[in-house]
Write a structure and sequence with these properties.
seven-stranded mixed β-sheet, two-stranded antiparallel sheet, 27% helix, single chain, 11 strands
C-alpha cells in the first residue's frame, strides 16, 4: 500500500479501516500461531532478551498475540509492565504477574481490555522500561507507526521524551502490515524496530 504521507487524519482513518478489515477476517488459530512466532522473533532483539523492564500490552481481538511473549519474558525474570486505560485516554501501569493477574475491564462502549489487577504504578512508570512494545496497525519504511487513533501511546511517547527516557520502541505487527508509507503528521514519532511472525526489522535510526 503506497501513500504520499502528506495529509492527515482522513487518510489515517481510511488506512485504519483497511487494516482492521483484514484483521477482522483472521481466525483464533491465525492469531494464536502468529503470537507464538512473534514471541520467538521478538526475543531475537538483544535489547528485549536482556531487558530488565519491558512495557508491553495484552493483545485483543485480531491483534498479534502478546501473551506468549509476555510469559517468555517473565520466565526470564523480566519485569513486565502493562497499561491501564484512564478516563482521559492516558495510561497508568501495573505489573504483569501471569495470566491470573489480568482482569477484563470494559471501558464504556469500547472494546474490553485485559489489564493488570495489582497496584497502580503511575503514568511515569513507563520511563523505567528498557523496551516499550507498541500496538499498531501498520508501520512504514521510516519507522512511522499507524496507531488506532486513541492517542494513548502518543502521550506515552511524549512522556518518555519529557523524562529523557530512551527505551527501544518496538511495534508488533503481521507481515503484510509493514508497508512502504503510512500517513504521518508532525507530532508522530518513529519507532526503532518492528517484529512480525517472520522476523525483526530495524529502522535507520534504530
Amino acid at each position: 500500500m503506497e501513500h504520499d504521507g502528506r495529509t492527515g487524519e482522513p487518510d489515517k482513518r481510511a488506512f485504519r479501516r483497511e487494516f482492521l478489515e483484514v484483521r477482522n477476517r483472521l481466525t483464533v488459530d491465525d492469531v494464536r500461531v502468529a503470537g507464538r512466532a512473534l514471541a520467538e522473533r521478538a526475543l531475537e532483539l538483544p535489547e528485549l532478551a536482556r531487558g530488565r523492564t519491558v512495557a508491553a500490552y495484552v493483545s485483543v481481538g485480531g491483534e498479534p498475540g502478546t501473551l506468549d511473549l509476555m510469559d517468555a519474558l517473565r520466565a526470564r525474570g523480566v519485569r513486565v509492565l502493562l497499561p491501564v486505560l484512564l478516563p482521559d485516554n492516558d495510561l497508568d501501569w501495573g505489573e504483569y504477574g501471569g495470566p491470573d493477574s489480568l482482569a477484563r475491564v470494559q471501558h464504556g462502549g469500547r472494546m474490553a481490555l485485559f489489564e493488570p489487577s495489582g497496584p497502580r504504578l503511575g503514568p511515569d512508570a513507563v520511563a523505567d522500561a528498557d523496551v516499550v512494545l507498541l500496538p499498531g496497525l501498520a508501520v512504514d519504511a521510516r519507522g512511522m507507526r499507524l496507531g488506532r487513533g486513541g492517542g494513548s501511546y502518543d502521550r506515552v511517547l511524549a512522556r518518555l521524551e519529557r523524562t529523557g527516557a530512551r527505551p527501544l520502541l518496538v511495534v508488533l505487527l503481521y507481515d503484510p502490515e509493514v508497508v512502504a508509507r503510512v500517513p504521518a503528521e508532525a507530532h508522530d514519532k518513529p519507532v526503532h524496530a518492528v517484529v512480525t511472525p517472520s522476523g525483526v526489522r530495524r529502522f535507520p535510526e534504530g
